[in-house]
Amino acid sequence: MGIRLGANQYGKAENRVVRVYRESSRHELYDLNVSTSLRGEFTAAHVTGSQADVLPTDTQKNTAFAYAKRHGVSSPEDYAIALGRRLLEAAPRAQSVQVRVEQYAWDRIPVGGEGHDHAFIRRGDGTRTVAVTVSDRDARERIAVLSGVCDLVVLKTTASEFKGFLKDEYTTLKEADDRIMATSLVARWRHMTTETDWNASYAAIRATLLEVFAATYSRALQETLYLMGQRVLEAHSEVAEIRFSAPNKHHFLVDLEPFGLENNGEVFIAADRPYGLIEATVIRDEAPDPGEAWLAVPAFT
Amino acid sequence: MGIRLGANQYGKAENRVVRVYRESSRHELYDLNVSTSLRGEFTAAHVTGSQADVLPTDTQKNTAFAYAKRHGVSSPEDYAIALGRRLLEAAPRAQSVQVRVEQYAWDRIPVGGEGHDHAFIRRGDGTRTVAVTVSDRDARERIAVLSGVCDLVVLKTTASEFKGFLKDEYTTLKEADDRIMATSLVARWRHMTTETDWNASYAAIRATLLEVFAATYSRALQETLYLMGQRVLEAHSEVAEIRFSAPNKHHFLVDLEPFGLENNGEVFIAADRPYGLIEATVIRDEAPDPGEAWLAVPAFT
Amino acid sequence: MGIRLGANQYGKAENRVVRVYRESSRHELYDLNVSTSLRGEFTAAHVTGSQADVLPTDTQKNTAFAYAKRHGVSSPEDYAIALGRRLLEAAPRAQSVQVRVEQYAWDRIPVGGEGHDHAFIRRGDGTRTVAVTVSDRDARERIAVLSGVCDLVVLKTTASEFKGFLKDEYTTLKEADDRIMATSLVARWRHMTTETDWNASYAAIRATLLEVFAATYSRALQETLYLMGQRVLEAHSEVAEIRFSAPNKHHFLVDLEPFGLENNGEVFIAADRPYGLIEATVIRDEAPDPGEAWLAVPAFT
Amino acid sequence: MGIRLGANQYGKAENRVVRVYRESSRHELYDLNVSTSLRGEFTAAHVTGSQADVLPTDTQKNTAFAYAKRHGVSSPEDYAIALGRRLLEAAPRAQSVQVRVEQYAWDRIPVGGEGHDHAFIRRGDGTRTVAVTVSDRDARERIAVLSGVCDLVVLKTTASEFKGFLKDEYTTLKEADDRIMATSLVARWRHMTTETDWNASYAAIRATLLEVFAATYSRALQETLYLMGQRVLEAHSEVAEIRFSAPNKHHFLVDLEPFGLENNGEVFIAADRPYGLIEATVIRDEAPDPGEAWLAVPAFT
Question: Do D155 and D295 reside in the same domain of the chain?
């Protein structure tokens, strides 16, 4: 009977890298949570305990911080690509490196009607995410970039229905003509190339997602996700595919009849658990093969 | 040896009340987390098990939802006062009622440059809080109102020092001329009366807190909190006192010297634990007696 | 109009102190979360920004770690008292010091039927807590000790009812003859003196709490808490009072009738929010004045 | 340019199913968190908005509760298989169904030296997990069962080193001869068949994991994980492969030298972030193809 090492990866998770640019009195702030993973031929580390091929996670951490200075941060994508290349170079037995970044958004604090030079307030309306996979080296180098957003909590108070669904003997749900629809959206999209204006692309796609959510009638969360994805792919030729993970944050109409009150879509209870969970991919026919792009990316089908 | 019941309270916590106004096509949304507590003469419930004087927490929940319709929600303070009065009326053995509300902020989703009529995105830059205590009845009725904000995460990249502190044999901290200062602010302020434009007062005080944080030099978080409080009391005669609870969210300069790199306040690690925790009250000399206003309010000295 | 500093405190929160005793090959492990707060005359730090009287929170952290070695940890109470005394001594303008400790429990991993010498598994069945307040100095020194437990999640599948309660027009709850009762108990008890075998006292009181919960019939969570408190005070003359904070973790019977199934107390849904929250104190008539013992202790009336 | 729906799934997440057996006065308690996902041909739901093929997540929830009664719960695996089969049958356009279950462990409360009949205390030393995938129907039905454990927090105070690792210009880590090693283990193992005594198998594998962690010397977390996996596969012919996800919960030795104190592996600070994250698979050569077994299972390479 043979027993052997299968798929494996290791790295340093959740390096809280904060990068300040203070070249002028108007400071810039990048607030990142950086995780790195190396994959490759690390059998010895597992089977014999030899660490000779292992670039320690502590070194990966140091590199993440050093690269915030040496390479700098103009976008999480650009920083992640540079860091991933460096780690692949530093670990000869690694075959690929994944770098995941979350970027927390900060606004300038308004003082006298203007944003302050060096004081910031953290915005909570969604977190920008990046997952970059660098594989192989030299002429065969391949870079897959996933950009995305998570914790984008959106809600519409009307223009959402759910009816005409399949019924069986365990069905008790009533059809709904007009309901609250809400979700905490996770979306990730894969780029065709690495030649992109990352910040502009991110801002435009985020805006598109919000607009479609707001402005289209919804027959189900599935339909709304698909429309979002379709619109993003139509408007952004740089995007090969987009994946969504969307909890249906149920808001149940409260029965006020026992108290002699009408409730015409006015009073709801926001429920915690259970929740529907809808996950979908919208993809371009000519999308290139994803390779390892989606490997070990959390929360996706 | 005598054993007896001491201080006690009971109620329903975390009712997730969502109230939609849809009188016009431009919907309004109030997203609340409501907790109620009754205090009073409930010895029988504890000692003999008789529930004859106990208004069930389930009824308190029903009342919270019904009042979102019957009384309506124009501000969390106004709603909490009405709910507190009702519960005190409904439970003859209660001597006081505390209603705590958190209000989650939502923005309209921008579509074509305008905020949408019925689609919203949740903002995460701080949560509005209220704690109302209604005590006694009839002519002796007394209402204490605490307004506040929590989870207001702010950071300044300069204009903050910490030096000249007391030293002993366990001191290793170096003096800092220029550091990042960051906190997740909790502030609660007590009103002099119930005759206030709650929403306008909240918006103005929140703006004042942010402005002082941004625009004043800081010799310590203590000084900054005091300045915030002083400015609020000076500008808002409706406020009797204000209390702060402020974790010092440490950002440590990363040592890049081993890698041949300078770090002039550019690369930091955001630390989790431990953290400094600074709590302070700024109070007006003529502030009236708080009574039970601060009783059982979380996170305050 | 005068504005002044009111109540205030500052310190270092959540020092994760892990103390290992390795005098023999059978190691001992104390896993602590330590928070310290100084209270006193710190007006200058707030009003003028002078830190001359301020023992930095960084120094408090250093002292917490150094005392784990210098004084050692035989119980969280004993360690907290020593640390509190030291901090009061080190900060001449402090009038009192509060030290709060959470102790996470670990079991030895069973190997061949015996607990291992140096390998442990973390137990999650409740966390031991301590809050010690040391006030004044020298001959007038006063030490208040609160021991406790939190996150003690208990459930009984029968022997619990809830009926005969007060009804009003918002009441819809049905009386229950037989229900699940569950809570995540927080209890803290105040000691009469500092002359106690802390570990033995803790173990005995924890066992008493559990036994009363299990073995007594419950007409309401209030009654059960009172019985627990009464039994603790009767059996433990070292305890002056005990306070409880107990969420009623509702388990609702699921309606299976639409599916042609009976549900005789067999299938429940465990709900998240809202939840009842019951808080009560049981106190001995001759309990000494608590002074600042309960000041700023989280989650208590 | 063609745009189309790619991989997708939907279901109800986190149904908190609590099942009590009360046939005798000695009650049995199963406390489950159940999530279901359907995958298949659901293009219409996404593209045209038609829900005619969609078995609502609400119905999936009802089925989860009804099956706790109709089929019953003897083990989470057995229950998940039954529920998965039912959902596949109920949704003709589904091609596969995944059912994920977490089971929270409860002990009987000790009263007079014996475990009580109907009162329980929740244990926190790890959560049992199951992920079952049922695909295809009738003669081609295929069932993949992953059993596992998560949140198994273990620590050893010695018998762990980390040295001989690869070094580059970003390396500052010192070699360690004797350190604390701790992790919060996630392990999932895939069964060869569905003919297993699920509860006995789980208990034995969990015990094996703990024993290997405790009793073997560690040259790195990688080596320890591999040894655990090897031992499980050697001892359990019913297991085809096992996967681990293990954060390295760093415990850093505190420098007490500035205070004139030695620290011989006695005082540590338990760090939060960043942390190493080690993931590895140990697999049997003759393991059958996993199919969709690992698809969308959180936290795995």
Answer: yes
The reply to whether D132 and D152 lie within a common domain is no
- The token pair at C59 is 């120094």
Same domain, residue pair C207 and C298: yes
What residues contact residue A1 under an 8 Å CB cut-off, 6+ apart? D234, D284, D285, D286
Residue A148: burial class (beta carbons within 10 Å; 0-12, 13-18, 19+): buried
Q: Which residues contact B224 (CB under 8 A, 6 or more apart)?
A: B181, B212, B213, B216, B218
Q: What six digits make up the tokens of B83? A: 């709910």
B157 and B289 share one domain = yes
Domain assignment present for residue C256? The answer is: yes
Q: Is D12 a catalytic residue?
A: yes
- Which residues of chain A lie closer than 8 angstroms to C251, CB-CB? none
Contact assessment for residue B17 and residue A267, using Cβ atoms and an 8 Å cutoff: yes
Task: Please check whether residue B290 lies inside any domain of the structure.
Answer: yes
Choosing from C43, C57, C59, C194, the catalytic residue is C57
Query: Chain D within 8 Å of A42 (Cβ-Cβ)?
Result: yes
Q: Which chains touch B (3 or more CB pairs under 8 A)?
A: A, C, D
User: Which residues, in sequence order, are bridge partners of residue A115?
Assistant: A110
Check C233 against B59: CB less than 8 A apart.
no
Beta pairing partners, B8: C280
Take residue C245 and report the two structure tokens written for it.
């904070």
Q: Does A184 touch chain D (CB under 8 A)?
A: no
Task: Give tens-digit pLDDT for C228-269.
Answer: 999 999 999 999 999 999 999 999 999 999 999 999 999 999
pTM (predicted TM-score): 0.98
Å between D118 CA and nearest CA of chain A: 26
Is there a single domain that holds both residue D46 and residue D134? yes
Residues B97 and B15 placed together within one structural domain of the fold: yes
pLDDT (tens, 9 = 90+) of chain A, 301 residues, equals 699 999 999 999 999 999 999 999 999 999 999 999 999 999 999 999 999 999 999 999 999 999 999 999 999 999 999 999 999 999 999 999 999 999 999 999 999 999 999 999 999 999 999 999 999 888 899 999 999 999 999 999 999 999 999 999 999 999 999 999 999 999 999 999 999 999 999 999 999 999 999 999 999 999 999 999 999 999 999 999 999 999 999 999 999 999 999 999 999 999 999 999 999 999 999 999 999 999 989 767 5
The domain total for chain C is: 2
Q: Does C186 fall in a domain?
A: yes
Q: What angle do CA D136, D137, D142 make, to 5 degrees?
A: 55
Strands (E), chain C: 3-13, 15-21, 28-40, 94-104, 106-111, 114-122, 127-135, 142-156, 181-191, 239-248, 251-253, 267-270, 275-284
DSSP string covering D170-188: T--PPPBSS--EEEEEEEE
Q: 3-state class of C81 per DSSP?
A: helix
Could you tell me the CATH number of the domain that includes residue D114?
3.10.270.10
Among D188, D128, D142, D160, residue whose Cα is nearest residue D249: D160
Answer whether B217's CB lies under 8 Å from B143's CB.
no
Other C-beta atoms lying within 10 Å of the C-beta of residue B18:
25
C145 within a domain of the structure (yes/no): no
Region at A15 (left for phi over 0; alpha for psi -120 to 50; beta for the rest):
beta
Catalytic residues of A: 12, 57, 250
C242: containing domain: 150-301
Does C206 lie in the same domain as C112? no
- Single out the residue in D121, D140, D159 at which a domain terminates: D140
Contact call for residues D231 and C111 (beta carbons, < 8 A)? no
Last-in-domain residue among B109, B140, B171: B140
Return the closest-CA partner of residue A45 out of A56, A36, A37. Answer: A56
Read off the tokens for C175. Answer: 């009386």
Q: What Å distances lie between residue B186 and B147, B148, B235, B281, CA to CA?
A: 11, 7, 20, 12
Same domain, B162 and B270: yes
